[in-house]
Amino acid sequence: MRIAVCDDDRHDREQVLQVLRDVEPEAATEEFEDGASLLEAARRTPPFDIIFLDIYMPGENGIKTAEAILSQAPRTGLVFITTSRDFAVDAFSLRALHYIIKPVTAKSVTEAFWRLREIRPGSAASINVGRERIYLDKICTLTSANHAVEILLSDGQQIKVWSSLTELEQKLGRRFLKINRGVIVNMDCIEEMRPDRCVLRNGQELFLAVRERGTITAAYQDHLLDRVTRSKKEAGL
After folding, report:
1. Which position among 10, 70, 111, 208 has the lowest Cβ density within 10 Å, counted as fewest Cβ atoms?
2. Of the candidates 76, 92, 119, which is a domain's last residue?
3. Residue 41 falls within a domain, yes or no?
4. Are 101 and 142 found together in one domain?
C-alpha cells in the first residue's frame, strides 16, 4: 500500500506518520510539505492508495491539490486533516474518505482505512498488538481480563495481549461497539440484538450495560442501516 502524508507543519506531519506506523506498520509512507511536491510524486506509478492531506497550506489549499490528484488518479482515497470544519462540504464533494480534525488519532486513521476497504476490498485495515498483526475484520470481540485483553477471532482463535481495552479501542473502527465496561464487539459478528443483550453468530450471549442500552441499540441500528445503504450502492440501486 502506498500512502502519502502532506502537511506544511513538520510537527503535525510527524504526528500523523507516527499514528500510521502504529496502524499500518508495513505500508510504504511518503511525506510532503506542500501540494506541489505531492502532485509531482502522485504522477508516478503505482498511484497512492490513500493520501492524508492538510487543507491549510501555503499556496494552493488542500482542496485544490486534491482536485488535481483525482483528475489523474480517481481511485486514490483522500483523507483531509485540518483544524477547522470550514471545508467539510468541499471535502465530501470530492468523496473524501474522512475529514479529521487535528490532532489525528489512531481511531480516526483506522476509520479511514475501514472506509478505504469498503471501496477497495484489498486494503484491509489491521492493528499491531505486540508481535501480532491482526486484521480488524477477523476480530469478533475484545474482553478485559486481568490487566490484559482477550481477542476472539472469527475462526475461534483466541489471542491474549498485555494491553488495556481503552488503548485498543482507540485503534478500532466504527464497526466496533463497546457494549459494557469490559467488552467491545464487532457489530458484523452480531446475529441478534435484544433489549438487554446481543447474540453473536457463534451463539455467545453478551449483556449490555444497563444505563447504555438505548445508546448501544441505536448505534447498532445505525450500523445496520449503513450496511444496507452500502449494499445498495454496490448493487447500483
Report:
1. 10
2. 119
3. yes
4. no
Q: Which residue has the cell 485483553?
A: 149
pLDDT one-digit tens code per residue, 7-19: 999 999 999 999 9
Distance CA 100, CA 93 (A): 15
Cell 443483550 locates to 197
Residue linked to cell 440484538: 193
pTM above 0.85, yes or no: no
- Does residue 79 contact residue 66 with C-beta atoms inside 8 Å? no
Residue 176's contacts (CB-CB under 8 Å, 6 or more residues apart) are 136, 139, 142, 169, 184, 185, 186, 187
Give the residue ranges of DSSP H helices in the chain. 10-23, 35-42, 62-72, 88-93, 106-119, 165-169, 213-234
The domain containing residue 216 runs over which residues? 136-234
Residues 83 and 143 reside in one and the same domain:
no
